[in-house]
Amino acid sequence: MSSEVFLALLVYAFVTSITPGPNNFMLLASGVNFGFARTIPHMLGIGSGFLTLLMGVGFGLGAVLTAFPALHTGLKIAGGAYLLYLAWKIGTSRSLGKDGEAKARPMTFLEAAAFQWVNPKAWVMAITAMAVYTNPERPFLSVLLISVAFAVVNVPSVSSWAGFGMALRGFLADPARLKWFNIAMGVLLAATLWPMLK
SS3 for 193? Predict the structure, then answer.
């Protein structure tokens, strides 16, 4: 992979990672409701889960889904149902999570990592990256370089959304503002399903 192609890949990885989508809406809401530090496992889970998804697609999982459309449809349905459940949880949250509070909690590392496997945007990003940037003459190296590119841009991208949420925390300490913010985040998260339904 030439330096120009790798630079183009980095730009693609950054743009797709920083733009709104299920992960980023959830991180924004988590930053508001739980703060930056408690959202770190969620952020790390996104990066790790997406990395395993990317490598899975790069090493043949995408071909399996193409060969078995029913499996792909099942994955979309499961992902959509889980996304709606998460949207409901965010939309009905009414108080800022405190460190010792057991009822409300941020998404764990494993939950965030597993979510990548049913996240429609993550699948589109992974399949597109592998289709566009893989060199058929050096597939193994290509998959590794694509994975490195996404790993490099992931941390600053997800951190910015959680950080923005943390910055809004004081403003949204008012229960009425927090209620409407969480409802808006729940609706926006549910709306990310629209491209998948087309």
Answer: coil
In a domain, 175, yes or no: yes
Question: Is the distance from CB of 92 to CB of 28 less than 8 angstroms?
Answer: no
The structure tokens listed for 152 are 């490099």
Query: How many domains does the chain divide into?
Result: 1
Asked whether the beta carbons of 116 and 57 are under 8 A apart, the reply is no
- Give how far the C-alpha of residue 12 lies from the chain's centroid of Cα atoms, to the nearest Å: 15
Q: What is the pTM of this model?
A: 0.78
DSSP state of 60: I
**Integer Cα distance of 57 and 131 in angstroms:** 10
Establish if 101 belongs to a structural domain: no
Q: Is residue 103 part of a domain?
A: no
190 in a structural domain: yes
H or E segment to which residue 150 belongs: helix 139-168
CB atoms within 10 A of CB 190: 19
Domain span at residue 191 reads 3-9+27-95+112-197
Confidence of residue 100 (pLDDT cuts 50, 70, 90): very low
Smallest Cα–Cα separation from 116: which of 60, 37, 51?
51
Summarize pLDDT for 10-36 with one digit per residue, the tens: 888 998 888 888 899 899 989 988 999
In sequence order, the 6+-apart residues with CB closer than 8 A to the CB of 117 are 49, 53, 75
Per-residue pLDDT tens for 55-85? 998 888 767 767 777 876 777 777 777 778 8
157/16 Cα distance (integer angstroms)? 9
